Structures are given as C-alpha cells and as structure tokens.
Amino acid sequence: MADYFLEVKGKKIHCLSNDLSGQPKVLLFHGARFNANTWNQVSTLKSLKEIGVPAVAVDFPGYGLSERGSWNDLSEFIKDLLQAMDLERPVLLGPSMGGNAVLKYAIKYDQVSGLILVGPVGVEEVQDELDRLDGIPVLLIWGENDNVSPIEKSKVLISRISTARLEIVGKQHACYLDDPKKFNDLVEKFITDVRWSRN
Predict the structure, then answer these.
(1) Domain ranges of the chain
(2) What CA–CA distance (Å, rounded) separates 73 from 13?
(3) Which one, 6, 64, 65, 132, has the greatest CB density within 10 A?
(4) Separation between Cα atoms, residue 198 and residue 104, nearest integer Å
(5) What pLDDT sits at residue 195?
(6) Where is the AB hydrolase-1 domain (predicted)?
(7) Dihedral sign of CA atoms 54, 34, 152, 122 in order
(8) Which residues of the chain have pLDDT under 50?
C-alpha cells in the first residue's frame, strides 16, 4: 500500500491507497480509536485491490498522521476532501464515528454511490432525515453484542431506508477485528453490486 498526503483547506491529510490506477471508487474512514492503517491491518485495502477496485483510506484531521484542522463537523471535512480529490459519487465506508460522518455527508449532499455503515454512532441525530437516502445502496454491518452502538439502532436505518440491508459480523463494536475475512467478503460483494452512477 502507498501512503501520501493531500492538502485539504491548507492541512496535510494522510491517505493510504491500494495503488490501482485511476480515481478511487471507495473511500474508507475510521472510528475514534483507529486510523487509516486499520484498513491495511485487516486487509480491506488488499481485498479491494484483488477485485480491481481502487480505494483510499483516510486519516481524519487530528488522527493518525493527519494534521489537525478547524472542522467542527466531519461531514464538512468529507465534502472538502472530495473536492480536493476531484472525486464524484464514491462509495463511502465508515465505522462508529466515521459512520456518523459519512451518514451526515450523504444526507446533506447526495453525492455518493453507496454507503457502508459499520456500527455507526449518533443515528438518532439524523433519524428524521434518513428518508433522503432512500434509493441509495446501504450496507449495514454490526457486531452482535455492540455495546457502543447497540444493534437495535440498525432498525431505525432499515425502517427509513428501503435500500438498506443488515449483516452481522462478530460480536464487538469494531466487528471487523472479530472476523476480517467475513467483513471483507461482505464489503467486496456490496461494492461489486453497486452501480457507480445512480440513475
């Protein structure tokens, strides 16, 4: 994997790429206790490379190797990041805090081809706006015994987004650590099935 820094609003943001040529089709974010390298450690970047999908994992500002920024809302950081990358309608993957950020971004800007939400926190903050995502492919992945974002929260998402489906992986909040192979297989299948440009 190749790492590089991208300037976003004057701040150096660390990215980790799976090296396939062309613009990334998938951006991977992280939770509060993790960073971009998590997706290298659990082989998600490698898994996507093996099916020919360019992907980039990103350190949020102030996490991993990225500089701190003035963003109070990580969904606004994602908007600025996509502008800096000149990227339109990627699939966004976000666990926990990152899931909250990509969920808010997708609701506000309607500029995604699909979402992979892994035990996202703060679902209740946006529950009245979730119908804006109806029609967008959404994969929900939850650990069975998630004690940070209980699996019951998935019911809110499923009831509001007809194109959302739920998969259970492992037990804990960071469920991708429990069973990386199953997690990566689900991510691969979802991304293979997603149409890159929505009608």
Answers:
(1) 2-193
(2) 16
(3) 64
(4) 19
(5) 59
(6) 26-120
(7) negative
(8) 196-199
